[in-house]
Amino acid sequence: MSLIVQKYGGTSMGSIERIRNVAQRVAKWHDAGHQVVVVPSAMSGETNRLLSMAKEITPKPNSREQDMLAATGEQASSALLAMTLLSMGVPAVSYAGWQVPVRTDSSHTKARITSIDDTRVRADLDAGRVVVITGFQGIDDLGNITTLGRGGSDTSAVAMAAAFGAEECLIFTDVDGVYTTDPRVVPEARRMKVISFEEMLELASLGSKILQIRSVEFAGKYQVPVRVLSSLTDPSIPLDEERNSGTLITFEEDQNMEAAVVSGIAFSRDEAKFTLRAVPDTPGVAYAILGPIAAANIDVDMILQNLSAQGTTDFSFTVNRNDADRTEQLLKEQIGPAVGAGEIISDSKVAKVSIVGIGMRSHAGVASSMFQALSEEGINIQMISTSEIKTSVIIDDKYMELAVRTLHRAFELDQDRD
Ligand code: ADP
Ligand code: ASP
Ligand code: MG
Predict the structure, then answer these.
(1) Nearest ligand to residue 228 Cα
(2) Which residues bind ATP (predicted)?
(3) Ion ligand 3 nearby residues (CB, 5 A)
(4) Could you tell me if the CB of 199 is within 6 A of ligand 1?
(5) 394 close to ligand 1 (CB < 6 Angstrom)
């Protein structure tokens, strides 16, 4: 008997029929003698529906109230699941995050989990109940409900698996694992049976929506075995088969992985690029530009500084598109005038495409193969950033899908390696 945390995403919880499927799957694990904690997302579309109602009221809703609202999506789906389990004769109870409690800091809409109390949950598990706990939310020290950012149920599940000492955290979703890239964009993408923790961390941080980045960070910090697998299969699939399906995030590097130079491709449209033209090139100019951005709690991603004519420099950087308005305001009202910038250009029509692979460490020339493949398609690269195991480029967003398909082919990711 072991303790298993199972997370079900929005599509998996998307209708009463799907919730029945989830309940049957959970019942199978419970009947086999496992202790099961289930972390559901809101039914698909529900979080968007709630947030768009808030936006109808005001373009910038109060963030505490926004969390009060958004957290209800998971409360509804959790209660529906517990009800379904009970109606099938499976002992079950649901809790909202604040009842556990899942404690977080006070950064509304992007809170971080600080601790999870296991007392209540353990008592229920020991009494033979399935425990359903809302994903995506917690409570801060002042008693306010907080949410963890979009896709945050992944993080709730992995954090709970760590806190309860679960044997495994199963992330059930609408694809049957982690693919070489999003199979919706490249139908030839292949599922990986295992992916290294480092590669998963890079893919998630570079915009791959399959797992929220913080869930991968938690998995690494507490060495939680995480498996991504499909919730859309027949729920009566034998347990052993299910346990070996999908993609396991592994903390060991095996031979097979080293063979793949590039393992996956991530992409993101959540980017905005800013350029300050003709800034007088004096020591401290980078700090003068980026200091106030950092002070406003805005993360800067890529940075590019070019020398141009007459001792001036063109300075470009990217931020998340959600921070674009605040960044533009800071640049126009404060930073631009302070550094004597000639012109401030903002561009939200950019995308980031990245190749990721731990094999890149030991192979030279991978980045230039990437640039060559893009140039053969006439795709202009606006910015580049590299690390040991990834290369990212900023391009015009209208070429994003072409770039992903091109690179997938160029690095032969569609070829079977097993
Ligand atoms: P959930 O609602 O279960 O959390 P998400 O929509 O957040 O599901 O994540 C699953 C989706 O992630 C898939 O439907 C797929 O389109 C997308 N995705 C992006 N990159 C990948 C990848 N490398 N492998 C598999 N799926 C990916
Ligand atoms: N319901 C939340 C969202 O749509 C959290 C999640 O699904 O993981 O972002
Ligand atoms: Mg998700």
Answers:
(1) 1
(2) 7-10, 173-174, 179, 184
(3) 9, 151
(4) no
(5) no
**Backbone region of residue 365 per phi and psi (left: phi > 0; alpha: psi in -120 to 50; beta: other values):** left
Tell me how far apart the alpha carbons of residues 142 and 97 are, in angstroms, rounded to a whole number.
15
pLDDT at 306 exceeding the cut of 90: no
Which residue of 153, 174, 227 sits with most ligand 1 atoms within 8 Å of its CB, as the best mutation to test the pocket?
Answer: 174
Please, what's the b/e burial string for 344-371 (b: 16 or more CB within 10 A of its CB; e: otherwise)?
A: eeebeebbbbbbbbbbbeeeeebbebbe
Phi, psi of 6 (to 5 degrees): -125, 125
Q: Report whether 173 belongs to an annotated binding site.
A: yes
Tell the residue number behind the tokens 């030839």, with chain if given.
Answer: 188
130's enclosing H/E stretch is strand 130-133
Return d(Cα 291, Cα 318) in angstroms, integer. Answer: 14
Residue 311 — pLDDT band, cuts 50, 70, 90?
confident
Residue-wise pLDDT for 226-282, tens only, equals 999 999 999 999 999 999 999 999 998 665 554 679 999 999 999 999 999 999 988
| pLDDT digits 0-9 by tens, 94-120 | 999 999 999 999 999 999 999 999 999
Query: Which tokens sit at 269?
Result: 């449209």
CA-based nearest residue to 229, from 210, 215, 216:
210
SS3 169: strand
Burial of residue 78, with CB atoms counted within 10 A of its CB: 0-12 exposed, 13-18 middle, 19 or more buried: buried
C-alpha separations of 350 from 87, 98, 377 in Å: 50, 39, 17
By percentage, how much of the chain surpasses pLDDT 70? 98
With a 6 Å cutoff on the Cβ, whether 140 touches ligand 1 is no
